[in-house]
Amino acid sequence: MENETVSKNFIENIIDKDLAEGVYDTVHTRFPPEPNGYLHIGHAKSILLNYGLAKEYNGKFNMRFDDTNPTKEKTEFVDSILEDIRWLGADWEDRLFFASDYFEQMYEAAVKLIKKGKAYVCDLTAEEIRQYRGTLTEPGKESPFRNRSVEENLRLFEEMREGKYQDGEKVLRAKIDMASPNMNMRDPVIYRVAHMTHHNTGDTWCIYPMYDFAHPIEDAIEGITHSICTLEFEDHRPLYDWVVRELEYPHPPKQIEFAKLYLTNVVTGKRYIKKLVEDGIVDGWDDPRLVSIAALRRRGFTPESIKMFVDLCGVSKANSSVDYAMLEYCIREDLKLKRPRMMAVLDPIKLVIDNYPEGQIEYLDAPNNMENEALGSRKIPFSRTLYIEREDFMIEPPKKYKRLFPGTEVRLMNAYFVTCTGFEADEDGTVRVVHCTYDPATKGGNAPDGRKVKGTIHWVEASQAGRATVRLYENIVDEEKGVYNKEDGSLNLNPNSLTTLTAYVEPALMEAKGYDSYQFVRNGYFCADIRDSKEGAPVFNRIVSLKSSFRLPKA
Question: How far apart are CA 213 and CA 469, in angstroms?
Fold first, then answer.
């Protein structure tokens, strides 16, 4: 229906109202990460929300690094963040900025506040500032340096810039209200001395603006209309508005807060991931067991699946957690019609077809995706000796077991019916070889006499099979114990989070290159690892298994 109404989220309603009332005549958004770590799945929501709104309203989207804290920032993080955002499809065109681009303008803004009597240099230590700040129930006390003259403040601030003071010796504070019920308005620090080399400006500066002061200035300079951030900044909004108002910017941006995206039972804290990397528990910020955007990409998630996930989560004012199973649902939905379904045997035992001609190899037709004929078909080799999954044969099966056991007949996928005639086992009972006979009349997997079999198993022809490394993942934390240890705050690690196998795969899979993904029949979706795969020696990461407990709620 053409006139069907689409439900809008609360941010779109605010923007519609602003445009209708002429508050703004365009929409200009930005994504402003601090380059102090890799982005994670929660950041994807912010990226896609900001970019999506700019596209929806034919506006502009800026990419900007809030690099005001040189103690934690690295060029490595800048590069990884840009790669993540490009991969997600957010296009900043020619609008890539750094907060550090505006350091001179921020300095001039601070001088303007001093001249207006709205900022002062304070000699209290960080601990004393905390003590003077008061509590949620008690007002703060004014600093003894609060009423310095404008002239003295200008001189001292200039000397701070010139490097005359040690780190922590002096700060510049906004002069607002030490009795404000909002702690953020009790004369917040807006500049500090920090003799640090900055990744972008080198040693040009030894004073750096605080985030709460820098951020509204950046937004105002760039002409941002709607400064969209997460809920923890709600209490900072009065300070944001105060900075913009006191600096008299002609088109003040509007801050709007939304709820963060929380995933259950995952590790997103940069401090914890840094420790996992440093301790060698994971092989980097992009280890496929993590939920950094780089890790999800390496594991085999697609931009489309992340976007579907973010859309399903929606935009609201209320914090909530989402089960990881929903993210897995999205990647299954995205891949199921796009990727070929190939055969790989992860835990192999030999299957010998005793009545098949020795030395003969024939090539059988196999569809690449039963649900999507457009993906075509391929030829797969078949011979007397195959590999099958160990779990597809049992000597004494339980009831309802539909695969191979002595005396039973099953279908080899895309091939023939076979009947188990015996097996070879080691002294400890471990089965090494299964013997069977085949019915040549059942080529293609159907019997001309109409007889049915209950089980179908996959296989790989032995002489041409490739040997590939396969990694199976579980959650890096022990879900039963919870993510964090309640006693010391450490992570409850799962010792079985990574299992590495050598699998036998169809010959075509040996040509896989980084990020190529497939469904391995009955085993899940797998992606060739971008970092560890080599030509002719692929390493496959399991993206997700085939089975899911997640169901979309009914509308």
Answer: 51
Structure tokens at 58: 């034919």
Residues pairing with 471 in the sheet: 500, 541
Q: What distance in Å separates the CA atoms of residue 531 and residue 120, rounded to the nearest whole number?
A: 52
3-state secondary structure at position 333:
helix
CA dihedral 399, 405, 407, 409 (to 10 degrees): 90
- CA angle centred on 502, ends 499 and 508, rounded to 5°: 125
The pLDDT score that the predictor gives to residue 202 is 93
Give the C-alpha separation, 360 to 353, whole Å.
12
3-state helix, strand, coil in the chain (%, to 5): 30, 25, 45
**pLDDT digits 0-9 by tens, 193-223:** 999 999 899 999 999 999 999 999 999 999 9
Gap between the Cα atoms of 411 and 66, Å rounded: 60
pLDDT band with cut points at 50, 70 and 90 for residue 450: confident
In whole angstroms, give the CA distance from residue 13 to residue 21.
12
Q: Is the pLDDT of residue 320 over 50?
A: yes
**In this structure, how many other beta carbons lie within 10 angstroms of the beta carbon of residue 80?**
20
Q: Is 33 left (phi over 0), alpha (psi -120 to 50) or beta?
A: beta
Distances (CA, A) of 24 to 17, 61, 254: 10, 15, 10
pLDDT tens figures, 369-426: 999 999 999 999 999 999 999 999 999 999 889 999 999 999 999 999 999 999 999 9
> Could you tell me the pTM of the whole model?
0.91
C-alpha distance across the termini of the chain, in Å: 18
